[in-house]
Amino acid sequence: MNPRQVVDYMMEKDHFSQFLGIKIIDIKENYALIEMEITKQMLNGLGTVHGGVTFAFADSAFAFSSNNDGNAAVALSVTINFTKAGREGDIFRAESVLVNDTRKTAIYDIKISNQNHDLVAKFVGTVYKIGKKVVEL
């Protein structure tokens, strides 16, 4: 399976990413670009995007990029920094890029921006390669 086919397979089973309304924009090996529109159900009590929504969005990009070679990898460690509040109607984009790869781990840099190209959050994640194929899980 090529990277896009792997992500399509994952997305078919990923009901949470579907629930968020995530759209796959571009997939290459160890790379993902996804998009999502912010709805009122994603807002917190202050009228801005709930941090958990932004985190989950970044986590989906992380999963799609780190598994799209067909080898299953799971999050080992992640950090996120929120840099700008999101609002209803915003279009978020998350771009996940491989920055370091070893036999058992890999590190990805994920940037979340809005429709104005403002940085909304920066997410860095490390995966552990579990030694199984995505289609085996």
From TrEMBL:
It holds the Pfam family 4HBT. The gene is paaI. The keyword Cytoplasm does not apply. SUPFAM superfamilies: Thioesterase/thiol ester dehydrase-isomerase. The lineage of its organism: Bacteria, Pseudomonadati, Bacteroidota, Flavobacteriia, Flavobacteriales. It comes from the Bacteria. Residues 47-120 form the Thioesterase domain. Keywords: Hydrolase. The keyword Hydrolase applies. This is Hydroxyphenylacetyl-CoA thioesterase PaaI. PANTHER family: ACYL-COENZYME A THIOESTERASE PAAI (PTHR42856:SF1). InterPro entries: Acyl-CoA_thioesterase_PaaI, HotDog_dom_sf, PaaD, PAAI_dom, Thioestr_dom.
